[in-house]
Specification:
The chain folds into 2 domains: 356 residues, no CATH class; 144 residues, no CATH class. Helices cover 54% and strands 7% of the residues. The protein has 22 helices and 6 strands. The N terminus is likely disordered.
């Protein structure tokens, strides 16, 4: 009886203990659920790592932003540069390509110069160029604002910009054009084919596509770092930054002050540049946290470059592949909690965690094949690029395929130690050799000219002519014949070319009888000096004549030999 009683008592106590633990567990679970609900209400629920839904939205918006800028530059400047009456008409270029490939517009012409302009009527080319730019601005503006896109839209943007770059000739010869085309090509594969949704459930972001962006930032940085180490000696003795801010193509106001930084700071900058471009990119392969460290450092590096100079949209564009180093958990702070894309991603992650992942459809399986094919294509096209990186004769900003899908990159392999500028001047004097002749200066929109004018701040916008004038200054006019073309247009007060300038000294007056190019050496004034107190941002010293005084009649043969239309001679000068 005692044994039975003890056993009954033990069972009773055990049941009460189990019931008590059950009650506590249920209470705890209820408390957790309530806490989770509260966290959801407060927007405190964090996303899991390893997914890239929000990363895709950020990437697409940033790519669209760069496209919008690029098409805006094209709309504002293409007519003057490659239009009907531009400095290098693209119609003439297309005709020369047509003759080169046998006189027919076929696959040979399309392969040599991929552009939809082959399929359009070349009459009124300005309207065609404007149309391409406006469509590009409209589509990229939509993606930027809405944060949604599909393969059709992104492919259209890529084709449209390709069409401009391939007929842009010298004006589109910069490395960031190829970089935008490669970035835009990869962005096509971020999206669903047709669906317009920020979080299309049936089209998760491909990890392969994310890694192609990461591979892009690795190549950009390594290319830039290696070309410096193999190039100018000043990169190896850490003195390049003593010159860079003053001699870069288009300085901004911060360049003026950063140029006067202490010598030890310039050494630190140069050494940091080597570490960021040659060592940090390899963090990408060391796991999630180190990959994000690489992304953060690269973005910060580009921001510093943006602040210290006008390098077009290059640095803004380089931020794009760096964003692929971050997953949804890292980028969730950019999105409003409880609504929109972030809420959708939370629901998807909850479904996946609960084993409710939808069964792959036929379309999803096809998409996986496409993603794998993309990886194989990028890997194959990367072979010559990697060989170029390893070569002692490394080339920078070069494409090895006509579609510019995978390219080599690099910047400032050599640094100019002195800044020189070409200054256009005109005079109404009958005799250019007359010592009493008054020569008046033209001013460009952004490049240094007037020593009292503050350096401009235009990044991420870009003035193509100003940038090319930087190259012309350390070449000769024989190497840059388009400079003489500009001079001829100035002699007739040509409105097309003058729209690319900031100041025409002959505005509202007779055009100049003579135009010449003067060569000057420029350097920043010393902050706090007497020159700076007078309002001088620059000091300059004449080197000599860049090209001699020219007039319209004297240029007639020069223009005819190059098939350039001869500028109109004013009636009172005939």
């Amino acid at each position: 009886f005692a044994a039975i009683t003890d056993s009954s008592l033990y069972d009773s106590v055990r049941r009460r203990h189990v019931d008590s633990r059950k009650s506590e567990a249920e209470s705890s679970a209820s408390s957790q659920d309530t806490g989770a609900d509260t966290e959801k209400e407060k927007g405190c629920v964090s996303l899991h790592t390893g997914t890239y839904w929000l990363t895709r939205v950020v990437l697409l918006r940033f790519v669209a932003f760069i496209y919008f800028l690029a098409f805006s530059v094209a709309y504002n400047q293409n007519k003057q540069l490659i239009g009907e009456h531009g400095l290098m008409p693209c119609k003439n270029y297309l005709n020369s390509v047509k003759r080169y490939v046998g006189g027919k517009i076929g696959m040979a012409a399309l392969a040599y110069t991929p552009s939809i302009l082959w399929f359009l009527d070349w009459n009124n080319m300005d309207a065609k160029l404007d149309g391409i730019a406006l469509v590009g601005m409209a589509l990229s503006g939509f993606v930027l604002v809405a944060g949604i896109s599909n393969m059709v839209i992104m492919a259209t943007l890529w084709v449209l910009y390709h069409s401009l770059v391939n007929v842009g000739q010298l004006w589109y010869s910069f490395g960031w054009e190829s970089q935008l085309l490669e970035t835009g090509f990869l962005a096509i594969f971020l999206c669903p084919v047709w669906t317009l949704s920020q979080v299309p459930r049936r089209c998760p972001p491909s990890l392969i596509c994310i890694w192609t962006f990461r591979w892009l930032i690795i190549r950009i940085m390594l290319g830039a770092g290696l070309i410096k180490i193999r190039g100018d000696k000043c990169w190896r003795d850490l003195t390049c930054m003593d010159y860079h801010y003053e001699t870069q193509p288009v300085p901004n106001p911060m360049s003026y002050y950063m140029h006067r930084s202490p010598w030890w700071f310039h050494r630190f900058e140069t050494l940091s540049n080597h570490v960021i471009e040659l060592i940090v990119p390899f963090f990408t392969f060391l796991g999630r946290r180190m990959c994000m460290v690489n992304g953060a450092i690269q973005i910060l590096f580009q921001v510093v470059l943006i602040v210290s100079g006008n390098l077009s949209f290059l640095n803004w564009l380089t931020i794009v592949p760096s964003l692929a180093c971050f997953d949804d958990a890292a980028l969730s702070f950019l999105f409003c909690s409880g609504t929109g894309a972030k809420k959708a991603v939370l629901e998807i992650q909850s479904e996946d965690a609960g084993g409710r992942t939808p069964k792959p459809t036929k379309g999803m399986l096809i998409r996986r094949v496409v993603n794998v094919s993309l990886g194989v294509l990028i890997g194959y096209l990367s072979l010559p690029v990697v060989m170029n990186l390893l070569s002692s004769k490394q080339m920078m900003n070069t494409s090895f395929d006509p579609l510019r899908i995978v390219n080599t990159y690099g910047a400032f392999g050599s640094i100019t130690k002195e800044r020189t500028e070409v200054i256009f001047q005109g005079t109404l004097s009958l005799d250019p050799k007359d010592p009493e002749a008054i020569w008046e200066e033209y001013q460009f929109l952004c490049k240094p000219g007037d020593i009292y004018r503050r350096p401009c701040l235009i990044s991420p916008y870009h003035y193509r002519l100003d940038w090319l004038m930087w190259f012309a200054a350390f070449q000769t006019y024989e190497q840059s014949e388009w400079v003489i073309h500009i001079a001829g247009r100035l002699l007739s007060n040509d409105s097309t070319v003058l729209s690319l300038l900031d100041h025409n000294p002959f505005q509202g007056r007779d055009p100049p009888r003579w135009v010449r190019g003067e060569h000057y050496k420029y350097k920043f004034s010393q902050p706090g000096s007497a020159s700076a107190a007078q309002g001088k941002w620059w000091l300059r010293k004449r080197i000599g004549a860049y090209f001699p005084p020219v007039d319209l009649e004297g240029l007639r043969g020069y223009f005819q030999s190059r098939n350039w239309p001869h500028p109109h001679i004013p009636p009172n000068r005939s």
